Amino acid sequence: MTSGAQAEDIAARYLQQRGLELITRNYRCRFGEIDLILQDGATLVFVEVRLRSGSRFGGAVASIDARKQGKLIHAAQHYLATLEHLPPCRFDAVLLDASNNLEWVRNAFSA
Predict the structure, then answer these.
(1) How far is residue 76's CA from residue 72's CA, in Å, rounded to a whole number?
(2) I need a surface site. Which of 51, 56, 68, 104 has the fewest CB within 10 A?
(3) Is the CATH number of domain 4-109 3.40.1350.10?
(4) In terms of C-beta distances under 8 Å and separation of at least 24 residues, what long-range contacts does 69-77 make, across chains too?
């Protein structure tokens, strides 16, 4: 079984192999944590990595509910406040199952 840290490693490698540049991992602030922050051209990408052992309750994508989205949005706003210029941004999700099957969901939700 893959751990959360291993899932983040797999997701980071996968996205980097597709041309995204890793900026930081596990950005933490008082609002929560962002698993991965990457650059995709001019766009800053905030990535939530989800690992699920099965598809009960809708699987990994369903676990990014409105409450979790709100925490991610607030954490992203906190990160953006540290930058001199605001780049275009998006929220992606990388979903892994117990067999390490991976799905990259671009624009998984919006702020």
Answers:
(1) 6
(2) 56
(3) yes
(4) 69/109, 71/31, 71/32, 72/32, 72/34, 72/46, 72/48, 73/111, 74/31, 74/32, 75/27, 75/28, 75/29, 75/31, 75/32, 75/33, 75/34, 75/46, 76/34, 76/46, 76/111, 77/31, 77/111
36 vs 22: CA distance, rounded Å: 7
Q: What is the mean pLDDT of residues 58-75?
A: 81
Distance CA 61, CA 19 (A): 23
Residue ranges in 27-102 assigned as alpha helix (H) = 59-62, 66-80
Task: Summarize pLDDT for 4-32 with one digit per residue, the tens.
Answer: 788 899 999 999 999 999 999 999 999 99
